[in-house]
Amino acid sequence: MGESRARPIFYVSDGTGITAETIGHSVLTQFDGVAFRSRRLAFVDNADRAREAAAEIRAEGEAAGYRPVVINTVIDPHLSALLAESGAFMLDVFAPFIGPLEAELGMPRTPRVGKAHGGADSAEYDQRMNATNFALTHDDGVQANFSDAEVILVGVSRSGKTPTCLYMALHYGVKAANYPLLPEDLEQGELPAKLQPHRKRVVGLTIEPRRLMQIREQRRPASRYASPEQCRWEVEAAERLLRRENVPVLPSTHMSIEEIAGKVMQALGLNRQHY
User: What class does CATH assign to 3-117?
Assistant: First the structure.
């Protein structure tokens, strides 16, 4: 099925759309064999924006030949009604919870546009920004100091370390660093010396060689770095090294970044609120 025949999915929010996209992606991964093409429509916080979004959703559905699906975290019922005029299949993320909570708390909700992420105070925001800066300065951290890291991800180049570190920083305020296992590390067959003092915070990521080859081919086409032989050797050598060092290893090939991050934190016993 070509991309033009993929079912359109829209994550629509009166804020950033991160909540809608995160929940929607987790749900859609349960449907193997169905082609989706997704887009995020953020800051749909007034009637004009809602009408524009509805027109865009309708046009996309007509072009694809499929009824679009809207995963919606817009708070204002009037704006949601305008979005529904698109003819899309509407999934309101908050709707199943509002009524039961109103009944349990004995009070109606107070709708407020953009409130889904409004609970984070300035200290939490600063923590996330500091963690993000930490992840960026400790990316592929051959020269980095790992003493302040809460998580150190190791694995071969392009196995998913950097996006996972950034996700944990942005959404959990976790100080996450990463270290690429280079061919010379793999030849030595042991955890690099600079990681040895911090081994209790080290988690390995592995990836199927064929998928690694595809990713590397996009980065450096027709190179030894992307060759099937090199990818296979690096993955196998990395897995042997990590097993020998008793480092927990997670497969990244078929997991989303959200899932990888959650499993990394679980492996290290990190219990953090998702922002």
Answer: alpha beta
Integer angstrom CA distances of residue 195 from 125, 175, 253: 29, 16, 24
Query: Which contacts qualify for 125-130: CB closer than 8 Å, 24 or more apart?
Result: 127/173, 128/169, 128/170, 128/171, 128/172, 128/173, 128/275, 130/173, 130/175
Residue 196 above 80 pLDDT?
Answer: yes
- Give 122-267's CATH code, choosing from 1.10.760, 3.30.1490, 3.40.50, 2.60.220: 3.40.50
10 within 8 A of 41, measured Cβ to Cβ: yes
pLDDT, one tens digit per residue, over 84-93 is 999 999 999 8
Q: Where are the domains of the chain?
A: 3-117, 122-267
Least-confidence region, from 13-17, 54-58, 120-124: 120-124
Distances (CA, A) of 206 to 17, 98, 116, 234, 252: 30, 41, 35, 10, 6
C-alpha span between 106 and 86 (Å, rounded):
34
pLDDT at 240 (0 to 100) = 97
To the question of pTM greater than 0.90 for the whole model, the response is no
